Structures
1.
Amino acid sequence: MQTINRLDDLRKAVDALKIGGKTVALVPTMGALHEGHLALVREARARADHVIASIFVNPRQFGPNEDLDAYPRRLATDAALLEAEGVALLWAPTVDQMYPQGYATNISVSGVSEVACGAARPGHFDGVATVVCKLFNQVRPDIALFGEKDWQQLAIIRRMARDLDLTQPHANAIIGIPTVREPSGLAMSSRNQYLTDAERDSAAGLSAAMLHAIAAINAGADIGDTLARLNAQILAAGFVSVDYADVREADTLETITTFSGQPARLLVAARIGNARLIDNMPV
Ligand code: PAF
């Protein structure tokens, strides 16, 4: 596996991988890799001739009081994991390569970026859309894979690809991979490292409460009543606060107040200890 951190080197290496019409899959990450990331890489390998993974802790998607400095960085360990999974190229740019002196462009996807995590983390999804658009232009992959754990991020990236007429990758080639969970049900996340053992046990209550809520909605319970019960259950499990717990239309993320079988997701963000955890499931 080659590890590259300069854009001119990346372009040459990508061109070499594409010789003979070989296809390339991109798996964008911020590192601190876990089984969820490795599931993306495995699926990418099954779908393309070569896999390129990126590791870049993107400062533009962290708010002023967020965990940019504390975010786990362990490039050597991550590189070994990616190499063992058969990744051809690791793109690990520096901040200066990604945002050179004078950088001034921002991509903002309105609507779908403004609710849920977008309301709680102003500017976060502009940072995500901007860096993902740059990664797409840098690598020009045939397909790109993202975890469904960040459902809103996936919806925003698809919206951006449609709106900007992207072709490398095309919006339909942006592939979501189901969330990988611990045996307890806790969705895997690089931020789970912030949890103590006791908090990790409590955090497992989130997915259990969400499954109850989904069962209730599917059995015809009122969405407002169900979400109120869900909030109470999440707090009873040991979370200190619930940022949001909403049922939303799967693509637009518009709020759903009456469920009639339309594509829908239950999305939750809640705080426990020093961590803000997010999770989502289909209704
Ligand atoms: O999901 C992530 O790890 C990041 O938001 C992404 C897509 C790599 C952009 O920085």
Note: Residues 42 and 85 are 7 Å apart (CA to CA).
2.
Amino acid sequence: MKLIDGKKVSQEIKNELKEKIAKAKEVTGKIPGLVTIIVGENPASQIYVKMKNKSCAEIGMYSEKRELSESISEDELLNIIDEYNNDEKINGILVQLPLPKHIDENKVIEKISPLKDVDGFHPVSVGNLVIGKETFLSCTPYGIWELLKRYKIETKGKHVVVVGRSNIVGKPIANIMLQKAEGANSVVTICHSAAPDLSYFTKQADILIAAIGRANFITKEMVKDNVVVIDVGINRIDDPNSEKGYKIVGDVDFDEVAEKSSYITPVPGGVGPMTIAMLLQNTFTSFARKNNLSN
Ligand code: GUN
């Protein structure tokens, strides 16, 4: 069994970007910029956004954090997004989800200019992915693809089974793995909670991508020998032995599934750190396109 070290790879990507940004600054006098917009006080969102802004600073990227009240109206939020659509310093706009219930998430996503859609959630970005045009890819699936490529895992003709059908992970990763491209060109199945027997599908996977959101859901009986396992889950479970009283585990029962795997991502330290690295990559790509630089 080989561990896929997302922490290490994400650091490599950040180092590469730091160099590219320094070079771009010499040539253009400019640096890429990201704005993160957060509405309300969701504690998990606060942590994620703080990590995103901190990572920008680490690599010499400009970033702004816009904190808005839970009670902001939808129209006000849409106007603020438009400000950033027209802001020369900003190459990427990220609105942290979830949003308060009175705000229509789809309207907000559609307001972001596709040129600055570094989350890859805009219907234009999603459509371009589906028809195989170059586009911004949603950061977590993009990170998974990057891990598979950097670990040189054979994907061509392999059966990738995705468990989960979210717009953020399940649907985009299935479409990425379907592309006729390096690190993809796979045969893809998407399955989900409505399947009467999920293990019928998961047992067929050469590469299993678990994005279910249930702690330790995938057990050793559900996979075949030598499977490659990509665990996207981040679940908090009680742990009386830890100081905090809880620990973070994935959607895969790591200890028992690892024994049957050829490669596996740990949680934490697998897919998680890649999400931010790819957000930075997307922001740099947006900047590079605008300034006619190579990516
Ligand atoms: N909430 C959970 N994951 C994400 C993400 O990747 N992007 C945004 N904007 N919000 C999220």
Note: The pocket of guanine is lined by residues 94-97, 119, 139, 168, 275 (CB under 6 Å).
3.
Amino acid sequence: MRNQLKTIVLIVSLGILLDGCRTVRPSLPAPGTPSSALNRTDNLALGNPSGASTNDPNNYMITRPQYILSYNQSRSTANWVSWHLSPAWKGDARRTNDFRPDPTLPTGWYAVRPSDYTNTGFDRGHLCPSDDRDATSQDNAATFLLTNIVPQAPRNNREVWKYLEEYERQLMTGGNEVYIIAGVSGTGGTGQNGYATALAAGKLVVPATLWKILVVVPAGSENTFQITANTRIIAINIPNNQSAADKPWRAYLTSVDELETLTGYDFLSNVPIDIQRIIEKRIDGGNS
Ligand code: MN
Ligand code: MN
């Protein structure tokens, strides 16, 4: 009994100790790490916004080399997906277009099928985009698992949302790395066939908005990067309808604080709180 207690105390203190060691700085790669593995390990560097774990079916963490996501069983979509965009993830692998059910979902959970989207008037919209993951065809195929896909109004997907995706890759080719979190909020959107709250006989929820946060840091500062009061943060929230595309993504700029209120999450939780307070209230100027 006494020994059991000691073990528990030890485990708890170790947990607290490890927690205290969490840092904004990604750790140095181990010596001998192949260059292809460099800079590909920080998909959740800025924190776990909803405290996702494998205990809660509606905040269920799925971890892949290519991205990390919080899955919501009652929506049959992700709550959010988090990833790191750097040149290490880019290559010339072709778009696989391999939309498929996620085989890693727990037994007994409904796994969305490609046909759940057929003739619904909604696109299979990527959260982590196909073009952010094309170093290998395996990387690219990971983005087509249907847990990374949400019902998205076609014009939203093919115009305004896509232009922001292109902008994140422009930021990268312009000498930056980008830490990105994208997700959904609310219920009900308007696709090509009108308004809908859910597809797949009610199992696949259509979100009301899609939001995204980009944290832009200079390339090459990978092992020393720090988020400062001057770090550029781009936060947007776009309604899931066709006419959203009548405006540029810059019309949908918001603050991280607003997205935290909307979602109830704590974004950038690995960033020191005094820095969070400054950068999370700022609305980006939208300058290129
Ligand atoms: Mn898309
Ligand atoms: Mn925060």
Note: The radius of gyration is 19 Å.
